Structure formats: structure tokens, C-alpha cells
Amino acid sequence: MDQITRILDRLLALHPKEIDLSLGRMHRLLAALGSPEKRLPPVIHIAGTNGKGSVTATLRAILEASGKRCHVYTSPHLVSFNERIRLGSDSKFVSDPELFDALQRCEEANGGEEITFFEITTAAAFLLFAEHPADVVLLEVGLGGRLDATNVIDDPLVSVITPISMDHEKFLGDDLSVIAAEKAGIIKPDRPVVSAEQDPAAQKVIERQAARCRATLKVCGQDFVAHPDQGRMAYQDDDGLLDLAQPILGGGHQYANSALALAALKAANLLPDVASIDAGLKSVNWPGRLQPLTHGPLVDMCPKGSEIWLDGGHNPGAGVTVAQFMGEQEERGPRPLYLVAGMLTTKDPVGFFRPFDGLVRHVGTVPIATTNTARTPEDLADLARCAGLEATPFPSLDAALADVAACAAKDGEPPRILICGSLYLAGEALARNNMAPD
To answer: Would you say 242 and 274 are in contact if contact means Cβ atoms under 8 Å apart?
Structure first.
């Protein structure tokens, strides 16, 4: 076991027995560290249920294409914890020595007090961001917004709210307007906010919070929009029309995500020239989200000519988006679609699977080895059946893919395979396929 793993395990042991979402522990630790959150480069703060990662990756790609240096904080990671912290000084994931030093300083400053794993590791990110040069911090919320550990930033350049749907009900509530109130908690007085197109109940909450904070609000579909146009992307707002490159990330929803990133940059006075925007849109990289797998050990297990996709989406909103994308692939080139899925006990499998009804030949459910909160394959298969899908539990990802290969041999045609349902499973698949993010 290496020193990073050992210290992360120690920090995890400090976790309160009952999580009470609160900023008190975070303020205490940051004060003991000398308040690094007050010494950060200008911050773009991103909350929401779906699309946070894609919007953050798009922001980073465009800013870096324009010559800006970006610190980036995202979660969870796929393979290595270092993926959560990218330093703008060299645009790479934090190195092991730098990460260990920051974690060790946070551990010492915390003095053995109860604190959540996310809180103390977020404090470590703030230490690193305060001590390394950059032009912008792209700061992704972990859970909710109002009481999230990242919400100690008082004066962001802009707050961004991606599409809101049901997720983390245990902590955020089971009513969309209540969840929206938590997400809208990142809106700050007199600072601009941009929002995705939302369910009307969520939109009302965001509008009310923006009004309370005297925050200028821009909403996708009302104040700005993007759509495909003859192999390009048209972005339009009150100032006119931009003819831009198509987003490289897969899925029609990426037009809206790109629009949100562009509106955020404009609100922050950071929108670069069209050439830089185009270069950024063409270079966005966000592993584990509608990612095609074209080579590697997992691919070699599948029938020759298979089309293999990986996506870590895990809530009903993500199910709609991914199923729509798979439907588009079916229209372009019909193939039997097989899902290989693993999910956590905190998620809604029936809500995730339901949009796939009528699209999927079969679901193979698998365990997730990298977390102790995964549903058993048997439980997940039962829930997939509740959503109207045929499902069989398997003891491993390899076993599920072997079954797909056997079915495809009987069909006589290469399958379309989607590995889905959890970022943890996506991480396992990337590690198994020798494709860890870099």
C-alpha cells in the first residue's frame, strides 16, 4: 500500500458516523490552514445534477486554448484520486508528492477532529490551488451546493447550474424544488449566474434565489442557445450569432452543455476569440461519459467489430440522455444493444433503466469491486426487470461481456455494448482496459 492510499484511508476514518451537511467543519479546518480559500485565483463555481463534468471540461478546454492556466477540481475520480485535482501550472493531475504533502498538512491541521472525506480533501485542493499559479479555478460542487464543502467561496466570477434532476435524495430531499434550492445555494450576492434549461419547478427556485442575491441570471433556451447547423454549432445570445465547431463530446445534450460553458465565460468576461473557442470545442476530453472504447483488453474480449461505449451516468436524468444517444446510434446503424450495468445502493435503477425500454436486447448486471455501497448483481437485475428489461446477474464484468459474445455469436452480427450505471464501474472498466485518464 503506497503512502497516498494510507493517508486517504486515515482521512476516511475521520468521517462522522452521521453526515450532517454543514460548512462548520470546513471553516474550522480552513482557518487552521491559514484560509487558503481566500488566496485562490478567480473561481468559476459549477453545481447541478447532470453535466457538471462535461461543462467543466469544456470550460477548461476553451480557456486553455486561449492561453489561460486552469486549476480544476472535480469528483469522483475514475481510477486515481489524483484525477480530482488538476494544477494549472502544468495542466496535469497533481503529482503524488504534492498531493501527499497537502493531505498531510490538512491531517495535521485537523487534529483528529471528525470531518468528512470530501471536506478534508477539498481543503487539500484549496491549499494546492492557493500555492500554485493559475488564471482561473474551475470548482465543481461535490453534493448539492448550499452546504457543499466547495461553497466557502464568497465571490466567484460566475456561478453555473447544470440540469437538475433527482439524485442523492437521502441528503438533498425527494422534491425537485428542494434539490434545486440546495443547488442554487452557490449563487452569491451581485455575482452573475448562468443556468441550464430546467424543469419549471427548479427554474422558479433558481430565479427566486438570483433575485434575492441581486444576481444577473442568464438561462439556456431563453437568453442563449446552441444547436447543430450544417456540421457546425450555432451559438446565439442577445449579442448575436457565433458559427462554431461542433462539440467533440458525444450526445446531442453536449450542445446545451457547450452553450452553458460559453455563457459562463461571457458572464465572467473570459470569452475568447472564435478560433480559441473552436480549438477548445475540438479538444474537450472527459473520460467515462459516452466514451467509445476502440482498443484494449476489454475490447479484445468482445466479438470482432463490436461497438463499445462507456458511460458513468447513474440517475434518471442521465438515463434519458444516454438512452437518447443510443437511439440515435441505432438510427444511424442498427445493431443489437446490450447493457452491462453496475449501480450503487443510493441510486434509482428503475428510473435509470426505464428510458432504455424498447432499445435493449439484454442487461447483464455486475458487482462493483471499488466500493462497498454497490447493489448486488441479483438485486440490480430484479430492478432492471421492473423497468421492463430482460436482465441476468453475472459475477464480474468479464463474465457479462463473455455472455454478450456468446449471444452475438448466435445473432450472427456484431453487438453494440454499453457499460453503464456508475462512475465507479466506469473507472474499473478503464483500468481493466488500460485506459486510465492522464
So the answer is: yes
Does the pTM exceed 0.85?
Answer: yes
User: What is the tens place of the pLDDT at every residue in 258-287?
Assistant: 999 999 999 999 999 999 999 999 999 999
Q: Which tens digit of pLDDT belongs to each residue from 74-125?
A: 999 999 999 999 999 899 999 999 999 999 999 999 999 999 999 999 999 9
